[in-house]
Amino acid sequence: MADRGGRGGRGRGGRGGPGGPPDSRGGGRGGGRGGGGRGGAGRGTEGDTGGFRGGFSGPGRGDSDLGRGRGGFGRGRGGSERGRGGSERGRGGFDRGRGDSSRGRGGSDRGRGGYDRGRGGFDSGRGRGRGRGRGGGGGGSFGPPEQPVFTIDGAVPQPDSDVTNLEQQIVTQQTTSMSQLVSDMGKLRVKAKGGATALSQEQFPARPAHGTRGTPVVLWANYFRILTKLSTLYKYTIDVTQIQVEENQPAKPQEKGKSKGAKFQTKEVKGRKLYFVIHEALTEISKADKSLVLATEFKSQLISLTKLKLEKNPLRLTIPAQNNPEKLDVFEVTIHGPAEVQVDDMMKYLTSPTPDSGDHALPRYPEVADALNVIFGFGPRTRVDDISPVGSSRFFSFKNGGIATPLLSNGRGVQAARGFFQSVRLGTGQLLLNVNVTHGIFKISGKVDEIFENLHVRARPKTDHLAVRNLRLISKFMPKTRAWVNMTLANGKQVRRQKAIFSIATASELRRSRGRNLPRFDRDWEFAGPRNVQFWMETTKQDGRYVSVHDYYQQKYNITLKDYPLLNMCSADKPTYYPAEFVEIQPGQSVKAKLLAKETTDMVNFACRSPYANAFSITNDGRGALGLDDGSLDQFGISVEKHLLTVQGRVLPCPGITYLEKSKPKPLHVRPMNASWNMRDVKVFKPGAMIQRWSFVNILPDRTSPVEYGVVDQFGKFMSNMGININQTMVAPPTEVITVNSAVYDGKLEDFFTWAKKERIEFLLIILGSMDSEVYSKVKTLGDCTFGIHTSCVQGHFKKFGGGNPGYFANVALKWNLKAGGINHKLRDDLDLAKGGKTMVVGYDVTHPTNMPSGKSDEAPSLVGLVASIDRDLGQWPSVSWEQTSKQEMLGHQLIEAVKSRLELWKKYNNKQLPENIVIFRDGVSEGQFGQVLEKELPLIKEACSALYLAKPHPRLTIVVSVKRHQTRFYPTTEKNLPKHLNIENGTVVDRGVTQARYWDFFLTAHAAIKGTARPAHYTVLLDEVFRPKYKGEAANELEKFTHELCYLFGRATKAVSICPPAYYADIVCTRARVHRPELFEISDVESVVTAGPASSVGGGGVKQVHENLRDSMYYI
């Protein structure tokens, strides 16, 4: 096909052919033993890197040529954790490393400089040449055999007594002014128009004391102490623009106001190109002063140990183009600043026992932490051959120590990789580095033909619907994928070029192209292979013919291409196709992906590691991957202690649980063991409203056996025996089975709901053959929004609902009772704050669009879910949800109406009385947003209260932020009382060592983590008008007890949960709101089918609201 310079490919092509002919219009001759590559009849010009509108890369000289390549993505050193037997024994497939004769990153371009010059400091010169390979994706150190607990040579150091003493001093000094602080916060009142008195000068509530209740225990924390004598750092910002110059025109900066006819223009620089430009800029800066100590995150920040003396600013850099080193790109790098970063001021603050005037703000000294994070991240970021950074704090090694496993069950070509997170944190009396094991999703790397082979991918016609669907799954991860393309230049030189994959070639994409003599796809082929795509090969200037890609390679080079789909490496308008055999995907490319069900299971299994394994990885592999012992930190005068920190914790006792006896309506008390219990011989504490009319239906794939009527009838009797108010005789459905296709596409599900509405059905049991997200979304939207019927989706598998499994029946029944307004269990000893029936507990959360295609996330709104208790037993939590501006965390004025509606509901269920106290758990905000919660959301909450309380005393408010997505972990230090799962004990609370004594926060692990490493919840008090006034010096103990025991009141479980139910329920409400909007949030391979029937909405735009029949219930559970 069109040659554009006659660059033949290198790839696995075998012997190659005799070389391309001197085709017209710039075809040129291909390489000798590479087969001439794109020596076709194209319009290419000498020296260009791509074929014209469908040009192809030719064969090459085999795997062992040009730097030994990288081989496949599956051969060599064994699985992701070699030697464990089974599929991980290194016998083949995807977990066998990256060995073979093509090991190493090599390639003829490796030592050329340009974008790939050097991998170390700024004087890295000409790079590393070819290298010898990266071992396997599953290599790495395995450490000693698994141990019950992590120790250092069998010993465990005690927590630092100096830190403990300083914590006590700080709290003691703050206690003296505690009464005044409470008074100040109590004076905060809402202005007439809903504004608030300025909170910017208000101080967050000081820690009243450290907690004392519970059994003391010493724990490891995943923190290292940072030692530094730094005084001042200098922070600069970097701007980079690329100057595009017309041919034969000198490059110069663009003048402001230049007319359209200018011969040059600038554009923003991003991604890896930006990395290499900044790398080159720092190299130039360092040449003038060899003593400079610099660090950058290769985006916009530059940190220096001394002030820079820039002879030239901006810098003009000329660098070989990334995808064509013969072409030079021109860049302009401008450095602004500096801003002084006072590290010594921060260190004085950390070690001072006296209150500070800036304690009203969190986080403290963010500019210092940011600068230090740049320094700590600089070392790993310079190792581009080894480390793949993701975001600002996560680093994944894809070299010897890297661990990765493919997630191929759904054929999407992604893999899970293990890496490390790091972040500088301020402690009490010490500066800390938080390090954790992390996991991410990456594109599978290696030769594309081998990837396709292992994924069983072949070119397929449109009529093969399943194959086309699978190809669409794979194709979603191809755009912007960095790859090596093997080719031969017109002079016979073998080269390896970096290009970005635009797409897997499709007929529908080609139809958007414009021009003469475009490639042709065989009729009815969407993802076509070499036999099904023809290109125009010019034989003379006036003549030519169409020839298939397969025939061209067979006849010209004696190469038989397999029927893999072709790759478009250019654009939709001007496609340039390459055979899969000559393209190799580079490793370490992260991808934002919503994992499918089986992928999620595989990911969880891969990420599930014991506390010992994680602690060992952090202290060994983690230090190496993050460069914590490298000289670059020493140059800044920074060192990191070798051992993890130990902290003091306490284990709180489990509360008792109350049900009703099986034989008579009398309370029966149950004592949890390891934070869980069972419901043997008990009934629910309080049944909900009578469920008179209910029915069921199976929604199954074709040729799947349904769950019989008798099993469902058995379920009705089971619920009655649990004490749930239900008519044991269900209403017989008009049909017991609906196929998935007819449910989604033919309106049969809408017909069924229409029947249910006519028959006054209150509850529907939906039995699914598999957890199909499209079917689930449709069921919930129809039930919750359109028809106002409670629905429960269950899995019909024999081991689950279909086999009459009592445990599964019980879990479903608990949800039915909650939906009906019942209470499944309560605490034996009522929470002191709640037992008077005067305290309402609220939880709310905001969820944002994530893991969505580029551009889509801005279209989808953020969703808010808010729940509030309505009873003294804290068993019922009706909800409200709404949309707000995409990616906006702080709530707007809708919060006023939401809180008012919850207060009205409380009043309805509590003798027309309003609560005296409101305890709010705000989920998911970061430290930098704490002040905004008080400045923006608190006034709205108070305005809602004013509207209902009028002249009556307003409620006392406490706001606690709950965070689950953080990186702090604790590991046991002793085998004494060690649970079977080898985690810390349930009920463990930590408020020392890794917290800041000036603020009121604590970590709580209420649950028993059966698998993996337990993740504690982190709670921070932003406002307190409830606990301190009531409990005085015991406020910290009482808040910890209140929060801990709340975790035993999650209504659909017989175990303590990891985050308190108000926050947990609010998160579930947000998830359900997403389910109601599949057209915005679900990434499907077919166009989402919009639910038929008029969903109740407000505000236009298809905003779905929960049906009024369900609005005041726990429909979401």
TrEMBL record:
**UniProt-recorded Gene Ontology molecular function terms:** RNA binding
Chain intervals for the UniProt region annotation (Disordered):
1-161
Q: Which residues lie in Gly residues bias regions?
A: 25-61
Q: Per the database entry, which stretches of residues form a coiled coil?
A: none
The record's listing under InterPro entries reads:
ArgoL1 (IPR014811), ArgoL2 (IPR032472), Argonaute_N (IPR032474), PAZ_dom (IPR003100), PAZ_dom_sf (IPR036085), Piwi (IPR003165), Piwi_ago-like (IPR045246), RNaseH-like_sf (IPR012337)
Identify one Pfam family in the record.
Answer: Piwi
Q: Where does the Piwi domain lie?
A: 763-1078
Q: Basic and acidic residues composition bias: which ranges? A: 78-120
Signal sequence, start to end: none
Q: Where are the transmembrane segments?
A: none
Q: What is this protein called?
A: Piwi domain-containing protein
Organism equals Dactylonectria estremocensis
Q: What is the lineage of its organism?
A: Eukaryota, Fungi, Dikarya, Ascomycota, Pezizomycotina
